Amino acid sequence: MSKRNVRIAIRDTTDSHNVGFFDNKSGIKYNSANLTQFLKGACSVLVLTYHSKKMIAQSGQKLAFRFKDKDFWLNINSVKKTGYKIELTAYSLSLEANKEKRGPHKPANAMTIKQYIDYYDPEHSFEIGINEVADKSIKLEWSGTDTIL
Question: How far apart are CA 95 and CA 90, in angstroms?
């Protein structure tokens, strides 16, 4: 990704406006951007380095860009500063779900698989394809705490 000039928008934490741009032509210059894709492109990790006196990108902000005719929207997970060198790591939303935790859950009534997924994923980052059990419901109790994945 670093051999091409890819313009990367830095979005605020609510994704309502651009904070800046990583762009080697007219924005914040970045030294390297390594994009790793998993599961046929459904999940992505971006590690980007740039030099600056101040932290421009912060954890929780979003990155949006287009690369090889595909749109990417990632969440900045970590930012490390060593001198003037800044390295950030951003995950696609499906990997970001690894950080989200849900605690114990005891529903009052039986629920369908869609209702359980809606409960555990209120942001609807997961999509149900063919639901072969749409007409079935069951009452399950979860007493632990785990990530939503």
Answer: 10
